[in-house]
């Protein structure tokens, strides 16, 4: 079973590379960002609460996203493996994910971290904001807030996987195909 954490700052290319990885490795894609946006478009109570935070570039509380992931793992018992995209984003989420997988006699195989510099992230997100309709992509101050949330709350998650010898850094600058090839090479090594 291949369980992959795709990691990186907002705009690093996690969603983009996930699409290619799920089709090559037949994995179930679990994107907490997508699940939250789906809750928002369905107008659920969870979605209404999450929207207030997401529109400001702030992380949603750990217990909310951990609950969502737990439900998705239960709903996909026969999966070949999972790609966790945008999760875990805090050390508490990483610890919860380990416990959830352990209870199913499974574990994370690898964390692949896409490394992209600050200015390039802002450029990509503003470009996507022109037609994505995502309020958190449209405003440079919100994008900066998301990057700061990443640096303070999410970057330490890399240390968590380094301590388990599961961390692999990938250069996230280049063509989408070049980056995809680098990720695939890491998975067979
Ligand atoms: P996410 O939906 O996870 O969004 P993201 O960090 O912006 O990354 P995304 O995957 O969408 O972008 P990508 O890098 O692929 O999170 C949104 C919000 O949800 C968070 O701010 C938070 O509030 C909340 N949330 C989600 N998960 C949470 C959790 N676990 N805990 C708490 N809160 C949570 O791509 C960006 C752009 O770059 C695209 O336009 C793409 O086309 C482009 N791009 C990709 N690769 C490129 C390349 N090689 N060259 C040039 N451009 C490229």
- Mean pLDDT over the residues: 96
Radius of gyration: 16 Å
CATH topology: Rossmann fold
What's the number of structural domains?
Answer: 1
Which of globular, elongated, flat, extended, rod-shaped describes the shape?
Answer: globular
In the CATH hierarchy, what is the architecture at level 2? 3-Layer(aba) Sandwich
The helix count comes to 10
Beta fraction of the residues? 5-15%
Helix coverage percent? 55-70%
Q: Summarize the main sheet.
A: 5 strands, parallel
- Report the structural category: alpha/beta
- SSE order, one letter for each helix or strand: EHEHHHEHEHHHHEH
Distance between the termini: 16 Å
Question: What does this entry look like structurally?
Answer:
- There is one protein chain.
- The protein is an alpha/beta fold and 189 residues long.
- It has one domain (2-188): P-loop containing nucleotide triphosphate hydrolases (Rossmann fold), CATH 3.40.50.300.
- It is 59% helix and 14% strand.
- The protein has helices at residues 14-25, 32-41, 45-54, 62-75, 91-102, 118-132, 135-138, 140-154, 156-162, 176-188, and strands at 2-7, 28-31, 81-85, 110-115, 167-171.
- α1 (14-25) crosses α10 (176-188), α2 packs across α3 (45-54) and α4 (62-75) runs parallel beside α5.
- BIS(adenosine)-5'-tetraphosphate (B4P) is lined by residues 10-16, 32-33, 36, 53-54, 57-60, 65, 86-87, 89, 93, 124-125, 128, 136, 146, 176, 179.
- The site of BIS(adenosine)-5'-tetraphosphate has 28 residues, from α1, α2, α3, α6 and α10.
